[in-house]
Amino acid sequence: MSAPERRQPPREARWETLEHSVQGVNKQLNQDWYVAEGSGSASDPLILAVADGHGSAVHARSHIGARCAVDLFAAQARTFAELARSEGPDGTHSLSWLMNYARNELPRQLAAAWQESVLAHWDRHPDTVNPAAEPPPKGRKLLLYGATLVGAVVTPQLFAAWQLGDGELTVIGADGAVALPLAPVEADLGDETESLCSRHAWQLVRVHWAPVVAPDRTPRLIVLSTDGLSKSFASDEGFAQFMAGLDQRLAKDGGPDDVREALPGWLAEAARYSGDDTTLVAARRPEPDAADHGPAPDEPRSDA
């Protein structure tokens, strides 16, 4: 009698990522920052984030604020993903516990850490133009570093995202539908936007919460972008069509490599129209067949 075939656990899909950023026309430096890391497994969560420094003299250090925002979000997202896979004092953290953490604790800790980080930067690098002047009050120091943030984390069980201020989270569903789940109810007026330097900033954070009920119903494309991209289109419909086209290009043979090659040119064209720094990070869920090839990300390898 032959030994029964050993059933292997389902393999976890490795998300493919692509990212790029271009400096706005006539800008002295790029005030955006971004990150795209992880495969989407339980031990290596997919983490995406873009931040947009406000620019202008009032926000002269916003490029530093944007980098702090992304770095601190990535740290908070890793902690959140670890909480999602670990057990608390009473057992595995429930979805309701994790949802409450995502909606309240993470934004509170992120906003507090950002303020602490940029104020510490000011203490290390105070104003050198007029060192004899009285240091500005705390609120004016924070304004110098003002930035927006869009961030997301994906594990085999959860997809959650957070947004403060402008920018876009675009989700292409398993059925190809394009959605912007964190779009504000009312669009910001002009260049005004909510910010990490706002009072009670954590309370302004919008949260998208989407537990994964079935792997094949997970979004097939997640895109985060700064508003330099959306402002380059004459209408919201044009922006949605661009995202649908991006999904279609990625689905073709050689699509990810072709898109990576073309992305800098697309973003440069967008920045030419919007005049703003333009950044995009995206993650594409591989087709189910692709996920069946090669060892699972968390499986140990043996050359024996």
Automatic annotation (TrEMBL):
It is an enzyme of class 3 (hydrolase). One of its GO terms (molecular function) is protein serine/threonine phosphatase activity. Residues 284-304 have a biased composition (Basic and acidic residues). Residues 26-267 form the PPM-type phosphatase domain. The keyword Ribosomal protein does not apply. Keywords: Hydrolase. Its EC number is 3.1.3.16. It holds the Pfam family PP2C_2. Residues 277-304 are annotated as: Disordered. InterPro entries: PPM-type-like_dom_sf, PPM-type_phosphatase-like_dom. This is PP2C family serine/threonine-protein phosphatase. Signal peptide: none annotated. The keyword Transferase does not apply.
